[in-house]
Amino acid sequence: MAALINVPAKARRGDVIEIRALTSHIMETGFRHTVDGVLVPRDIITSFTCRYNGAEVFRAELFPAIAANPYLSFFTVAKESGKFEFEWIGDNGYSSTASASITVE
Amino acid sequence: MPTTRRRFLSLAGGVTVAGTIPVVTLRPLEATPAMLTTAIRNVVGEAQLRTGRVKLDIPPLVENGNTVPMTVSVASPMTADDYVKSIHVFNEKNPQPNIGNFHLGPASGRAQVSTRIRLADSQKVVAIARLSDDTFWQVAADVVVTLAACTEEMN
């Protein structure tokens, strides 16, 4: 699935940087009915994790009240050059990953 | 038999009544304020819940409840011994009281999280922060929603 990640390419050591992550997902609440009255089963992303060079810096548990195509923005301190890894886990065995690299001077 | 005015009106009335019945049958569930309290207690436990330190940025009036931008920030130095452990967001009237739990740490640098949420009705949104000394701080905001999310029919 397509994911949009926004991480600054470069930062100075000690800078607080903003990370934005958006992925495409229907986030079906499990509370909606079809016109025939049949309940549409829940299909959401339940967990999002961001790791910075292997260490977890941000984690979120999501519920049906998160809008479709979940968007998250959060902050971290730029410590060293390396890689951010993002992971989304959801209902029906859903799993997707993305990554972005940063140069810290 | 000629169609009299009385007969026509009684027929028309009958059609209207029949037409309204299916509309009443689908009443969405709502989280009650009691469910909100329970959900908050599940996170906070017996600890005292104080007001302040947390800021919740959410539009007071939204047209479309399907995607409401929201930012929670907490006044905290975010050092190794004084930081925000987690931020929890709840609502009052969606079918479920939880919105999201966000886990931070000293490496976050700034205690601020943004996302987009769904609101099924005009209601109160509550944000709670858990600090590293295990104190809990909260803030609430009222949001008026014109078009509700979650419960519309699927086409």
From TrEMBL, chain A:
Classification via SUPFAM superfamilies: E set domains
Residue ranges of every copy of the Sulphur oxidation protein SoxZ domain listed in the record: 8-100
Transmembrane parts of this sequence: none
Domain of life: Bacteria
InterPro entries, per the entry: Ig-like_fold (IPR013783), Ig_E-set (IPR014756), SoxZ (IPR030995), SoxZ_dom (IPR014880)
Pfam families tied to this protein: SoxZ
Name of the protein this chain belongs to: Thiosulfate oxidation carrier complex protein SoxZ
Organism whose genome encodes this protein: Bradyrhizobium cajani
Gene name in the database record: soxZ
UniProtKB/TrEMBL annotation, chain B:
Protein name from the UniProt record: SoxY-related AACIE arm protein
PROSITE patterns given in the database record: TAT
Domain of life the protein comes from: Bacteria
InterPro entries reported for this sequence: SoxY (IPR032711), SoxY_para_1 (IPR030997), SoxY_sf (IPR038162), Sulphur_oxidation_SoxY (IPR016568), TAT_signal (IPR006311)
Pfam family, one: SoxY
Stretches assigned to the Ig-like SoxY domain: 41-150
